[in-house]
């Protein structure tokens, strides 16, 4: 089942998008902190994903949001504070969409197929998420460790995987010796690699990985691999 997900637009090779604060009928800016923060996070996500923590510049983020460094520091305290919020929002977004899959309404094997297919589609359609995770792994998780919410944000996906898996075991369709966290890791690893390594893999092995037929074949391969791994 091919889930439709909202894709982030890549920023490479095109002029950067500028976002502005809300304006009233007379053209004056209105005080809209939530929108201002959302605009800053949107632009900062692309900047940190593209350039990493060290390469991203608060001046550039301020210019693209037509705000000020002072305002960014007011909302997020520091460059590192903004970076941590970007990471939190990246995880919050995928977990929020996962919650809307309604896996509990599907038979266990179909639910697992939907979850794996969604993970593949989301990561393929949101390369900024992949780059952010790669950047933070280069920092060995140092900044994500500062988050007070990251653990809670990721509890639902483990619960969803566990629920699907345990229903499958109870129905006699899944084998009873798989750890749900390990299963989640395997799903993530297969889908993550498909995005993070596609350029080098394509170059080394002379494979055209971006055409629709190749994408569809790879998606089906990953879904089948996971399902056969847990099938009884």
TrEMBL record:
It holds the Pfam family TetR_C_29. Residues 34-94 form the HTH tetR-type domain. Keywords: DNA-binding. Gene3D superfamilies: Tetracycline Repressor, domain 2. Coiled coil: none annotated. Transmembrane segments: none annotated. Residues 1-33 are annotated as: Disordered. Residues 57-76 bind DNA. This is TetR/AcrR family transcriptional regulator. It comes from Ideonella lacteola.
